[in-house]
UniProtKB/TrEMBL annotation:
Its cofactor is FAD. This is Dihydrolipoyl dehydrogenase. The active site is a redox-active disulfide bond. Disulfide bonds join 45-50. InterPro entries: Class-I_Pyr_Nuc-Dis_Oxidored (IPR050151), FAD/NAD-bd_sf (IPR036188), FAD/NAD-binding_dom (IPR023753), FAD/NAD-linked_Rdtase_dimer_sf (IPR016156), Lipoamide_DH (IPR006258), Pyr_nuc-diS_OxRdtase (IPR001100), Pyr_nucl-diS_OxRdtase_dimer (IPR004099), Pyr_OxRdtase_I_AS (IPR012999). Gene3D superfamilies: 3.30.390.30, FAD/NAD(P)-binding domain. Belongs to the class-I pyridine nucleotide-disulfide oxidoreductase family. SUPFAM superfamilies: FAD/NAD(P)-binding domain, FAD/NAD-linked reductases, dimerisation (C-terminal) domain. It comes from Vreelandella titanicae. Residues 344-450 form the Pyridine nucleotide-disulphide oxidoreductase dimerisation domain. Residues 10-325 form the FAD/NAD(P)-binding domain.
Length: 464
């Protein structure tokens, strides 16, 4: 017989958005049921996204640094790559974190149910899972069903064609790998496979890597990957892929010749999962792409149903999902809050890393927004030199009328860590002088933002 459960708050989807919302709501006293179709909590980010990719990127960085230090007098023999062990380490990092989440759910009395949910009414969800069909009657709901990788119809169905999920399985290291898409995910995966020994070719439709990011930030990265990879083909599209026994035969839009690759990674973007929920039964609006429409309170067009994370729009990033999860949970618990984040930082964890937050020059160019700019090249950073790298740049964009910082960009080691200070400066409405007058520890890369601020103020006297 079908089981019926009651929930004060139903959270659909156990990724970073969903589990954050569920935990926050439980902490605020709501009776929470969290539904996840996969056996583990954590969603894309923990299982097949941020965490496994960053674990492998760490290994890639160690390999790169071990090779580069030979220029400075320390040489190692060629590294031996034990793929099964590396995969095991990556899986163990993921397992520790996802199991930790299960424990955190238990501590808070969040009831976790496994199964695929679809709405049957504005207060009813049907759940199909290992325990058969269940019915959940809820007072309020938060939808956090995330997104999935986009695939291209012209790609044949062949095990040598990977998406980011299968690429992270690290089944083997192909001799020649073609990466379709020069965005963050494509570049991070390329970095991993290249460090492990693949000859990598990247194909990007637009005229440069990381479309949308400022060109002065991309330039050092592009220079670096052009050295390391077999080819970086910009303004190029793949026109056909034929699966043959000796490899994948790939044709390109701007060339008569085709080339063989052992594997192909399709990293051309992600699409929201909003179309598979039977939204019409609950009455909330989903657009043609699958994004759920929400207001600044994360409310869908049905007042007691909220939506958060990848399924409500770009940028599809875990920290955006967790922020929105907290907002939705607090509103569901009766608090008067809203999604009033001014900025959301973006990071490509490539080597060098690229990070940006707030206004970019590319956006300003498109919209005609006025700005003033100051930058600090890492050539003059003592700390960058001690890392054996001088490739890097920190820059600030300032509103000419109010004098406050409205954007920042960093390329170089640990840019992803450093950008948080700029995000805080923008949220607090700080002026460059306030960054410049904050004493930063020396020698650190964090000084480079303060130096950019000093350059803006015209007070930059001390380099190194
Ligand atoms: P998800 O994490 O997608 O979780 C949604 C969950 O809902 C899933 O577990 C899914 O199984 C479940 N679900 C879906 N439909 C149903 C249903 N009908 N019933 C029950 N359950 C359902 N972001 C960053 O910020 N930093 C990074 O470094 C980063 N790296 C990434 C690397 C890769 C390779 C990829 C693919 C993504 C990366 N991202 C990164 C993006 C990040 O993973 C997502 O933005 C984030 O996971 C979105 O969280 P979410 O909670 O909205 O959805």
């Amino acid at each position: 017989m079908e089981k019926t459960l009651h929930a004060g708050l139903l959270v659909l989807g156990g990724g970073p958005g969903g589990y954050t919302a569920a935990f926050r709501a439980a902490d605020l006293g709501l009776d929470v049921v969290l539904v996840e179709r996969d056996p583990y909590l954590g969603g894309v980010c923990l299982n097949v996204g941020c965490i496994p990719s960053k674990t492998l990127l760490h290994a890639a960085l160690v390999l790169k640094q071990a090779r580069e230090i030979s220029d400075h007098g320390i040489s190692f023999s060629e590294p031996k790559i034990e793929l099964a062990k590396l995969r095991g380490w990556k899986n163990s990092v993921v397992d520790q974190l996802t199991q930790g989440l299960a424990g955190l759910a238990r501590q808070r009395n969040v009831k976790v149910l496994q199964g695929e949910g679809q709405f049957a009414g504005s207060h009813e969800l049907r759940l199909t899972g290992p325990e058969g069909e269940q019915r959940i009657l809820f007072e309020q709901a938060i939808i956090a069903v995330g997104s999935h990788p986009v695939s291209l119809p012209m790609l044949p169905s062949d095990p040598r064609i990977m998406d980011s999920t299968s690429a992270l399985n690290l089944e083997d290291i192909p001799k020649r790998l073609l990466v379709l898409g020069g965005g963050i995910i494509g570049l991070e995966m390329a970095e991993i496979y290249s460090a492990l020994g693949s000859q990598v070719t990247i194909v990007e439709r637009t005229d440069g890597l990381l479309p949308g990011c400022d060109r002065d930030l991309v330039k050092p990265l592009q220079k670096e990957v052009c050295k390391r990879y077999e080819a970086v083909l910009t303004k190029t599209e793949v026109s056909a892929v034929v699966a043959e026994s000796q490899g994948l035969r790939v044709s390109f839009s701007n060339s008569q010749e085709s080339a063989y690759f052992d594997k192909l990674l399709c990293a051309v973007g992600r699409a929201p999962n909003g179309n598979a929920l039977k939204a019409e039964k609950a009455g909330f609006l989903v657009d043609t792409e699958g994004f759920i429409k929400v207001d600044e309170f994360q409310r869908t067009t049905v007042k007691h149903i909220y939506a958060i994370g990848d399924v409500v729009g770009n940028p599809m990033l875990a920290h955006k999902a967790t922020y929105e999860g907290k907002v939705a949970a607090e509103i569901a618990a009766g608090y008067r809050v809203a999604n009033d984040a001014k900025v959301i930082p973006s990071v490509a964890y490539t080597h060098p890393e690229v990070a940006w937050v707030g206004l970019t020059e590319a956006q300003a160019f498109k919209t005609g927004r006025q700005y003033k700019k100051a930058s600090f090249p890492w050539l003059a950073s003592g700390r960058a030199r001690t890392f054996g790298t001088e490739q890097g740049l920190s820059k600030l964009l300032v509103d000419p009328d109010t004098g406050v910082i409205i954007g920042a960009g960093i390329v170089g080691a640990n840019a992803g860590e450093l950008i948080a200070e700029a995000a805080l400066a923008i949220e607090l409405g700080l002026e460059p002088s306030e960054l410049a007058l904050t004493i930063h520890p020396h020698p650190t890369l964090s000084e480079t933002l303060a130096f950019a601020a000093e350059a803006y103020e015209g007070t930059l006297t001390e380099l190194y």
